[in-house]
Each structure stands twice: as structure tokens, then as C-alpha cells.
Design a protein that fits this description.
Helices cover 0% and strands 50% of the residues. The protein contains no helices and 11 strands. The strands form 2 sheets. Strands 2, 4, 5, 6, 9, 10 and 11 form a 7-stranded mixed β-sheet that branches. Strands 1-3-8-7 form a 4-stranded antiparallel β-sheet, with no helix packed on it. It is globular.
């Protein structure tokens, strides 16, 4: 499966953005998806992930209550709605996918990665 992340941009503190991750192929519903982010000089960390059916989600503590992950398997797309953005949310955001029915939290759990989309939040 190939992934294409989009929707990043430059926003101000408190603004919202919605990232999209479009997947190729007809079996997207078999893949769990995760969103990760990497700030300059820092490691790539999990932000949120979702099961293949969309019924279960996970959020890191830093985004819980502000971000929402969702998916539309009919459109082969996963979304990350980001509200109340903060400067510390500034990073390159990556979507990733793997076959499987669980939630997956680590970089090494994923086999397919999108190219990343830059999110910059100004104070």
C-alpha cells in the first residue's frame, strides 16, 4: 500500500488543521493506521492510531482531548483532526500503515509510511 499525507500548513496557536492520509489499493480496510510526528532534533513519536475497522483509537497524552483520528475505508483515507494547536505541536507528521487487527504504537510496528506533511504552529 502507498500512503500520501496532506493537509499540513502554518497556523496560529489555537487554530485547527485536518491532516489526511490517502492510501492506494483496495484492501485498506485490512490495515491499521498510525499518525506519528517528528520535531527537529527529536525522535519520531506516536500521536494517534486506529484499528482497521475504526472502532478503537489511541492518543498520546500530549494530544488527548485535542486531536481526533478517524478513517473512511470507502475512501481509503485516514484523518487526523487537530484542534487547539500549540507551538509544541510543530513537527512533520507522518501516517503509517500495517496489516493487522490491533492498535500499534511503535515505529517498528509499521511497514508502510507516507512522505510526511509539515505542521507549524506560531505563537
Amino acid at each position: 500500500v502507498q500512503l500520501q499525507a496532506s493537509g499540513g500548513g502554518l497556523v496560529q496557536t489555537g487554530d485547527s488543521l485536518r491532516l489526511s492520509c490517502a492510501a492506494s489499493g483496495r484492501t485498506f480496510s485490512r490495515y491499521a493506521v498510525g499518525w506519528f510526528r517528528q520535531a527537529p532534533g527529536k525522535e519520531r513519536d506516536i500521536v494517534a492510531c486506529i484499528t482497521r475497522g475504526g472502532g478503537t483509537t489511541y492518543y498520546s497524552d500530549s494530544v488527548k482531548g485535542r486531536f481526533t483520528i478517524s478513517r473512511d475505508n470507502a475512501k481509503n483515507t485516514t484523518y487526523l483532526q487537530m484542534n487547539s494547536l500549540k507551538p509544541e505541536d510543530t513537527a512533520v507528521y507522518y501516517c503509517a500503515a500495517r496489516l493487522g487487527g490491533d492498535l500499534y504504537y511503535t515505529i517498528t510496528s509499521y511497514d508502510y509510511w507516507g512522505q510526511g506533511t509539515q505542521v507549524t504552529v506560531s505563537s
